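In response to reviewer comment 3 from the previous cycle, which asked for concrete evidence that the modeling workflow produces usable outputs, we include below a single protein chain processed end to end. The sequence was submitted unchanged, and the resulting structure tokens are shown without manual editing.
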Amino acid sequence: MKNISGKRALITGASSGLGVEFAGLLAQRKVNLVLAARRQVPMEELASQLRSKHGIEVLVVPIDLSLPDAASRLKGHLDEHSISVNILVSNAGSGHFGDFLDTPFESSAETIRLNIGTVTELTYLFGRDMAERRSGHILLIGSVLSFQAVPTYAVYAAAKAYTLSFGEALHNELRPYGVVVTTLCPGRTATSFDAVAGAKPSPFLQKLTMKARPVAETGIKALLAGRAFAIPGLSNKLMALSTRLTPRSMQRDSIQKMLAS
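The workflow returned the following structure tokens.
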């Protein structure tokens, strides 16, 4: 594990869920923070708590990262204030539950912009600086759904498959520059994701739900250990492993029934 005390981390999607947990875990390690998300009030409240409890610097940047120019505007804002980012936690994301043709296309387009476009651009902008400094950490958030096609989450699962492939490739590309890239692939987690996505999880899926803190802990530990990817929870590990052992048609049918039940 590397000593990251005094470094600065940018956490996107920092107003709720995993973003809040990442912020708390890094604050415990005395990492100064930049919190970025649409909702300013919860971020300001979190920032106040973390400043008081851990004695760190916390900057709040309210921004809609689903907009096409959001990544460059965020980078420009930090550059204007001479703020360098040593750790990027690219946590902001969105997804929509339902059949593709029954979902408004703008919802799908937003998922693609945020989960692929913004993630890619943020990684490029901040990763380039890290490579020049020969030091840095990037944590991307994939999903256990990254490993297979998922009816009713067609666009979201495809976007997360991109994140995993992208992150694993960069893990090798940036390693010679002293930059660690890790992709965290959680399963169902106790956040507001389902409510926003319009999903009503079955009792079976509810039993598989992990709390946000241990999921975030898995991600931070994997990042500091220099791992390419991490899957929190035994059930999620088994689900990912099963995609290597079963026909893809069986995977699609099984996950569709699981989500519909």
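Residues 8-260 form a domain with the Rossmann fold fold (CATH 3.40.50.720). We consider this sufficient to address the reviewer's concern, and the full set will be provided in the supplementary archive.
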